[in-house]
Amino acid sequence: MTPDQAVTAPVAIIGGGPVGLMLAMNLDFFGVRSVLINTDATTRWLPKGSTHNARTLEHFRRLGISKQVRALGLPADYPTDVGYFTRFNGRQLARLKMPSEAEKQRTVARASATDQVPEPILRCNQMYVERFAFEHVKTLPSVSLRFGWNCVDWSDRGDHVTVEIEEVAPEEGATKRRETWRCAYLVGCDGAHGIVREKLSARYDGVTLKQDYLGGPMLNSHVSAPDFYRVVKAPLCWQYWAVNPEMRGNLVVLDGKGEFILTSRLNALDDQVPEADIARRLCAMAGVDMPVKFIGHSAWTAGHVRVADYFARGRAFMAGDAVHLFTPAGGFGMNTGVDDAVNLAWKLAAVVQGWGGPNLLATYEIERKPVARRNTAAMGQLTRNIGAVPIGQDMEKDTAAGAGQRRTAGDYLSGFGEEFASLGVQLGARYDGSPIVVSDGTAPPPHDPFRYVASACPGGRTPHLWLDGHVSLFDRLGRYFTVLRFNPEREVGALRAAAQTRGVPLTVLDVDLPEGRDLYQRDLALIRPDQHVAWRGDTVPDDCGALIDTVTASA
Which superfamily, per CATH, for 3-72+124-206+305-377? Predict the structure, then answer.
């Protein structure tokens, strides 16, 4: 296929994992066509992270699919406790109590008007959500799927990007098909070793931690052990940790019926550990024998605390693992990538549709790189904490020394609750100093990875409100820019007109809620398409055109 015969789409996305899928869904939400290219013919049925945080679920809510996502994975009444044991059938060292999905939804149903968590954190393995998202994307009219195709080359031609793709495994006897796509932009969501990052020659800054656990080669094993709940007597957990002088490891519940992820150490990434040895390890962690079957294995390196030196060059962008590498402590990695995709999607849409300014896409790296550094730093500290668990040589013994060592370990592990919450990381991403955020001179809340302080200070997530009828503010926001008006006497006609003149989609939402006005501390707030506050004030500015030009990078 010659360039003259190229297939066209405004955006090409390389990599169909959670970040690529989220980007494609968001571009479709804004009415922008894309082609999504992925080497595997479908999403991988291999367990990865099991945490979709509150912000990620807000993004799913915006797309209208959060309820379907919440139905995946664990049964609704399954507790999400994390238990630490010498052995699962041995002594409990600590237990971090956390609610089931059903309990969380009951809390949401009775939440106050200014409660900030309309979509609580979800414990559901990534493989379930990816498969659902893949099936959902198949129904979207603006997404051309090329799963089972490989990107063999791409080139930034200055005014467009060409992407060469090839079918990976055609039907027997058929010739591999090839296509050339001509696109305005390319986004690499294809990970640390993908072709987009490789051709852009981006480097990672940071370190890879070396420690006894979660610092080096690791193995994830997808395990079927249906007898587990019969032979393990500990109260139900979402994560079971074994901590003793012989071993450390954790078992994460996938479906509540007998499928798990077992994480254990490797000496090297290419180690070929016999499955019988892995089964014996699981039984040793449990402290009881049981039948074990294996569905799959994946080796990986733990301890990464790394961020790419740049996120874009020319018409090519990167998101997710291509620009930041995490160890799974805290569940930050995939969720940070999802937030990348949402930030980038509306900016690509604005430029493709003609209302985004010439410098808008440059703000993607400006805004997201500091967040990546913040989140990797928080994750790095959590990982170091895990590596420093005090493990006494006598902790399994029924002696005074053993009891003391268990208390010491338990006291330490009891402080790990924020690893599994970290609401400041989940909801606290801010874009202070961004050229498309208009500061009002107020100081934002100080960053705290564990505590989120709702603030309408421009740059942060739009503070949530429950409106009359327990309707979420997020369900009432417009698709693009929205003016929140807490005082109906404030005139916003000049702002509407300025946006209309420039072709910028803008709606006005009146909010009759005194608690909302108190929270926002202004009568008006301009909300971006990614639900971050772009500007606030008690009256519209004298030059509304300048405001619209600033928030769309058209100035």
Answer: FAD/NAD(P)-binding domain (3.50.50.60)
Domain spanning 75-122+216-302+390-422: CATH 3.30.9.10: yes
C-alpha distance from residue 231 to each of 22, 93, 235, 290 (Å): 40, 19, 12, 7
Whether the pTM exceeds 0.90: the reply is yes
State both tokens at 206: 């940071």
315 is written with which tokens? 């018409």
Kindly state the tokens that stand for 308: 């790419």
171 residue type, one letter: E
Residue 158, CA distances (Å) to 79, 111, 162, 322, 508 in order? 53, 51, 10, 22, 38
Report which residue type is found at 201.
S
Cα 21 to the center of its chain, rounded Å: 12
Helix (H, G, I), strand (E, B) or coil at 41: coil
Instruction: Please give the average per-residue pLDDT across 139-158, as a whole number.
Output: 97
* 406-463 confidence digits (pLDDT tens): 999 999 999 887 667 789 999 999 999 999 999 999 999 998 988 999 999 999 999 9
DSSP, collapsed to helix, strand or coil, labels residue 317 as strand
Residues in the chain: 555
Indicate the helix (H) or strand (E) that contains 252: strand 248-253
What is the distance between the alpha carbons of residues 466 and 452, in angstroms, rounded to a whole number?
A: 18
CATH of 430-551, one of 3.40.30.120, 1.20.210.10, 1.10.10.60, 3.40.50.2300: 3.40.30.120
What is the per-residue pLDDT for 419?
Answer: 66
Position 62, amino acid: R
Q: CA 10, CA 186: separation in Å to the nearest integer? A: 9
Q: What mean pLDDT comes out for the span 54-61?
A: 98
- At 484, give phi and psi (nearest 5°): -85, 125
Q: Are 126 and 48 in contact (CB under 8 A)?
A: yes
* pLDDT given for residue 329 in this prediction: 61
pLDDT value at residue 212:
80
- Highest-pLDDT range among 166-170, 245-249, 299-303, 542-546: 542-546
Pairing mode of beta strands 259-265, 248-253: antiparallel
**What are the extents of the domains in the chain?**
3-72+124-206+305-377, 75-122+216-302+390-422, 430-551
Q: Please list the residues that pair with 369 across neighbouring strands.
A: none
